[in-house]
Amino acid sequence: AQKVTQAQTEISVVEKEDVTLDCVYETRDTTYYLFWYKQPPSGELVFLIRRNSFDEQNEISGRYSWNFQKSTSSFNFTITASQVVDSAVYFCALSEEGGGTSYGKLTFGQGTILTVHP
Amino acid sequence: GAVVSQHPSRVICKSGTSVKIECRSLDFQATTMFWYRQFPKQSLMLMATSNEGSKATYEQGVEKDKFLINHASLTLSTLTVTSAHPEDSSFYICSAREGQGAGYTFGSGTRLTVV
Fold first, then answer.
1. Shortest Cα distance from A86 to chain B (angstroms)?
2. Of A7, B47, B52, B72, which is the most buried if we count CB atoms within 10 A?
3. Which of A115, A111, A118, A101 is nearest to A38 (CA)?
4. Is the model more confident about A90 or about A57?
5. Lowest mean pLDDT segment, chosen from A21-25, A110-114, B94-98, B107-111
6. From the CA atom positions of chain B, what is the Rg in Å?
7. Are A61 and A51 in contact (CB under 8 A)?
C-alpha cells in the first residue's frame, strides 16, 4: 500500500532563512505522481507541484525548489529566503497510477506546519 | 484553469439532522471525485471515491450509510452527512479528476460544526 511520511511535524524559522521540508514515500507501483500542497489557515489547498515517477529532474520555481530522488524514495521541498507569508501547513502526497487497487487515490503525508517569524 | 466549486463553505447543524455538501466542476468533466475529511491539526483522509454513474467506493472504516455520496453527473457530486453528531464536526474537502493521469482539483472545503 502506498504511504507518505513527513517526519517533521513543525518547523520554525526566522524570515530569510532557507528551509527544507522532507517527504519520503512508499509504493510498489512504477508509475506514480508526487505532489506538494500548501494549506494556509483558510483551509483551501494550494497546488504547488506535480512530478511523475519517470521524471527525476529537480525543479525550481522562484523561491521554491524540489529534489526528487527515487533511490531514496524522497521528494523534498526547499523554500529559499523564507517569508512570513510562507507560514502554512505543507502536505506531500502520492497517487499510484499503475492500475492497482489504489489507482488514482491521493494519499497525503501527515503535514508539516511551517512558521516563519519576522 | 480547472475550478471546483464547493458549497457551503461553513455550516452549523443540530445533532441528528442531515447536511448536504455539493461539489461542482465548473469547466471540466470530473469522471472521478474524491471526498476527504480533515480533523484539526491532522492530515486529509480519503473517505470515498466516486465515478460518475456508479456507486461510491468507501475507504475502510467509513460508514457508507452515514456518508451518502452521489455522483449523478460529470460535473456534480454531493456528500450527505446523515444523522450528524458532534464527532462528525470536521473539514470536508472534495477533489475532482478529469481522467486518467489528470491532475486533482480541490474544492475550497466545508467546515461542518454539529451542535
1. 18
2. B47
3. A111
4. A90
5. B94-98
6. 13
7. no
The one-letter code for the residue type at B12 is I
Q: Is the per-residue pLDDT at B56 higher than 80? A: yes
Distance between start and end Cα atoms, chain B: 37
Q: Is A3 on the interface with B (CB under 8 A)?
A: no
Q: What is the pLDDT of residue B10?
A: 97
Give per-residue pLDDT as tens, A25-84: 999 999 999 999 999 999 999 999 999 999 998 999 999 999 999 999 999 999 999 999
3-state per-residue secondary structure call for B44-106: CEEEEEEECCCCCEECCCCCCCCEEEEEEECCEEEEEECCCCHHHCEEEEEEEECCCCCCEEE
Read off the C-alpha cell for B91: 473539514
- Rounded to an integer, the average pLDDT of B74-78 is 93
How far apart, in Å, are the Cα atoms of B20 and each of B5, B30, B51, B84, B110?
14, 19, 18, 11, 10
CA atoms within 13 A on the CB side of B86: 1
The reported pLDDT for the residue numbered A15 is: 98
Mutate to test the interface with A, among B52, B94, B104 (most CBs of A within 10 A): B104
Our CA-based measurement puts residue B57 at a distance from the nearest CA of chain A, in whole angstroms, of 11
Chain A residues with CB inside 8 Å of B111's CB?
A: 43
